[in-house]
Amino acid sequence: MKLLASDFDGTFYFKNRKLFLKNLIAARTFQKKNVIAIVTGRDAASVMHKFENTGFQPDYLAVYNGGRVLDSKGQLLYKDPLKIDLDRLYETLVQENVSQMSILSLTKVFHKSFHFDIHDWLYMMNNRSLKRNVVEDYHEIEDDIYMCSISCESEEKALLLSEKLKGMKFGCSIYVNKSYIDIVGEHASKEHAVEVIAMHTQADEVFVIGDSYNDVGMLRQFESYTVESANEAIKKEADHIVESVEAAIEDIQVR
User: Fold this and answer.
1) Using CB atoms within 10 A of its CB, is residue 16 exposed (0-12), middle (13-18) or buried (19+)?
2) Gap between the terminal Cα atoms of the chain
3) What whole-number distance in Å separates Cα of residue 156 and Cα of residue 114?
4) pLDDT of the residue at 114
5) Given a cut of 70, is residue 95 above it in pLDDT?
6) What is the mean pLDDT of the chain?
7) Which of 194, 198, 221, 193 lies closest to 80 in space, CA to CA?
8) At 184, is the secondary structure helix, strand, or coil?
9) Whole-model pTM above 0.85?
C-alpha cells in the first residue's frame, strides 16, 4: 500500500474548479488501493468545507501544520497545542506592522487587522459560513490554541519576520507559507504528521507533494514532488517536479 500526503492550497486545491476536479478524480482513483492524506496549515473545518459535494474525503487529515492529525472518522491520532506568550507576540506584531493576525482554537478564533481591506471582509464572511465563534479579545479563548496565523505584505517580509520570531525563542514552530507565517506547537510539523500517518497505515511506500516553505521538511524526508508553479527554492528541495497532484499520482501508480 502506498501513502500520498499532499499539501492543500496551491497543490491539491485551486480556485480554478477545473484543476481542482482533476486532482479530485485522480485522488479517488488512487484511494481504491492506497491512502491519501491532506497535510495543511488550515484548520479541519475549512478544508472539509472545500470537499463538500465532491464525493471525496481524505483518509487522513493533518491540520495546523501537523498540530492535529485525524483519521477519516475524525479520531484524533496526535495533537500538539500552541503554548506561547500571546501578549509578547501581539506586542511584537504591532511593532512589526504586519497586515493581519489570527489566533485559532478548535472553538474560537480571534482576528485582528492592522490595515483593513477587502481580504478582512472576506475573512469575516468565511468565518460566518463555517459558523466559527469569533471573539474580540484573544484572552477569551479558553481551550487549546493550535495556531497563530500572520499575514505580511509580501513573501520576503514573511521570511524576514519569521527569522526574527525564531530568534525570540517563543518555544514554538514557525513556518512560512507564501506571504503568511504560521506559528504552531513546538513539535508540530508536516513531516512528523506524515510519520504518524505512515505508522498508523503501515504503508509500504510514502510520497509527499507540496509547494511552499512549510512543506520543506516533508519534501526532504520522503520521496517528494512539487508543482511547476512553486518557486525555485522549493523546486530544489523536491525529488520530482510535476504539473499537478494528478500527474504525481500517475507517476506513483506506475512505480
Assistant:
1) exposed
2) 12
3) 19
4) 77
5) yes
6) 92
7) 193
8) strand
9) yes
